[in-house]
Amino acid sequence: MAKTTETSKMARSAAQERKDKITIKAIEGVANEVYSSIMKGHKPDLTMPVRSLSNVSYDQKRGYFEIGRSKKVRTLTVNTVKTFAQTLKMMALSKDLIASNDFATKRDAYYQSKNWQEAKFDEQPESDTVMDDIEAMFSVHDVSREELRFVPQEHGGAVAGELTVIDRDLESGKKIVIDCTQFGSGAYSVPSWVEHLEFKTSAKFILAIETHGMFQRLQSHNFWKKSQCILVSMGGVPTRACRRFVRRLSDENKLPVYAFTDCDPYGISNIYRTLKVGSGNAAHINRFFSVPNASYLGLMPQDIIDWDLKDATHKLTEIDVKRASDALKNDPFFLEHKPWAKAIQQLVKMGVRAEQQALSKHGLNFVMDEYLPAKLKKPELFLP
Amino acid sequence: MAKTTETSKMARSAAQERKDKITIKAIEGVANEVYSSIMKGHKPDLTMPVRSLSNVSYDQKRGYFEIGRSKKVRTLTVNTVKTFAQTLKMMALSKDLIASNDFATKRDAYYQSKNWQEAKFDEQPESDTVMDDIEAMFSVHDVSREELRFVPQEHGGAVAGELTVIDRDLESGKKIVIDCTQFGSGAYSVPSWVEHLEFKTSAKFILAIETHGMFQRLQSHNFWKKSQCILVSMGGVPTRACRRFVRRLSDENKLPVYAFTDCDPYGISNIYRTLKVGSGNAAHINRFFSVPNASYLGLMPQDIIDWDLKDATHKLTEIDVKRASDALKNDPFFLEHKPWAKAIQQLVKMGVRAEQQALSKHGLNFVMDEYLPAKLKKPELFLP
Q: For residue A384, how many other CB atoms are within 10 A of its CB?
């Protein structure tokens, strides 16, 4: 890694340099507390939020599922010594990664540990748990896992439209300018981590699309040009990198995000809800990954009636119905938003679901020529 | 679709125009036979290859799993009238798509059928079967489903490196030049269909990578520049579009393709074997989608020993072992290539599997600084 380290100082933007300093400071803060406890002859401990559904709340104003105040304290004892050491080694790895301007996936970190002698992980789930703990611990300091340079395996979706992304060569620090209007039928594949990216855009909104098939249609026919927007292909439930990309893009440019998914409990409660408020069992990270600016364009259950799609629907499966009733009973998001509860009830009552491509019934480009333009005239009608 | 049609003639490259003419000719050929049968007072029929494993062969020289000579004939009768009509309607849709320079996914085609009165499909599996039949029927005329403008839902993977892709604006026909060296940490997201793309490259080989995590490392650290290559992220078993992209790129530029996957039966027999020779149950399309120029760089079972990865392995699961013994017993590819059978036997005997990121044990960039350069010095040792 030595070669990489030498050039690392030049290779960062000023914004990245600032972020890295904050992250290093947070790591050193935790480490120093451990150190001074030991120096005083006390048992050192590490404090982190409890990661469980019982420690989650949802406040509309804040806009995402939030971690509660319950904390767990891991004190150094004979029983915790290995995990304690692993946690500190993992923090040290993070510090090294920042120093060398590099990054590691969960897998990479697990394999790196094979050199940690007694502190090595035997199985990857152990290593994942320690990483999740660290993520929760540092989320309190407003530092995300990606800022610690632990990055996901998955890419962040495909993007096209009125957007310029500014990246930097990791080794030379040279600026790289990516014009997302210049992809033809292809697209910009968002990297696994996006903290270092900068954006320039004249778009009026972001359209986050469930299926790549629909994205491909809108992209190939330059829908982004006609409606001055940025198209994002989520490809099902959006990955961490995809959600963070949309969040940063939306926040920094004050852009509304319109979600366009299938009209079924999966599209609504898994894909859209995850995009907007995050997920319950990862509440400590939703502050980074939720997209509070998101609202729901369609397909709405009412669209099936209004747009004459009845004969292009499928019956709801048992799983669909279970998913819907779970959302209505237990999901703070749907409990909070009455219009959403109503829409889901309507869907269950109709007993059918519709895919976004059902609009093809009226012609392949109907979605672009009729449906979306009509919808986009009244964004105030989109569900929250 | 009228708007689109007007500009369609300008919007094609000369190569695309030629291909489209061939496709239209093939469609009209089949349609004319049906027509003239009817005019002669005969029952018309449609002939297509039998799509089943029993009708598959593998010839090393040809380089892919090939469909055999068994044919099925669908004659117009009272029982077949609906499927017969649907097949012709689907062919007509293909012709319309070419005329308007547009495309449709399986889903789009299914929903379009809702306007075919008596010939409409009730369920999508029916529509998929007819599309598969058409695909098999036209594969005999060397026309692929993508050339019929029926395109997959999925994108074609992520690409970066020494490559320029030339695309065209679907509506204006304007050339779009995409420089795949200019993506920073991101990448070029390959579209769902790639027949219309043109390539310029000075690369010496294509590196097809199983995981996006490994791709991200090689891409961010400009491995493609150091080794003058093109990086492709397959993200597991490569999609149709990904395989076709690699195939065309490799054929047209005479580039070898080196596959880099996990060392386990899935990486070898599912990912690599599918990339190289295609799959048994879609043998009628392998002539378009297989990549005969592919060879296998690693991880090899022997790499686990040679590169001291033993403590970074996982035990083979029951599924792994079953997959391996299936490959050894039934897969024509592994039956044909003895060195492959040997390698798989060695893996089963060792009882472990290794992920490509296991190399991180020796340092995050060891793969780039040591492993790949050493391997690339002796491509003659790669398994076929």
A: 14
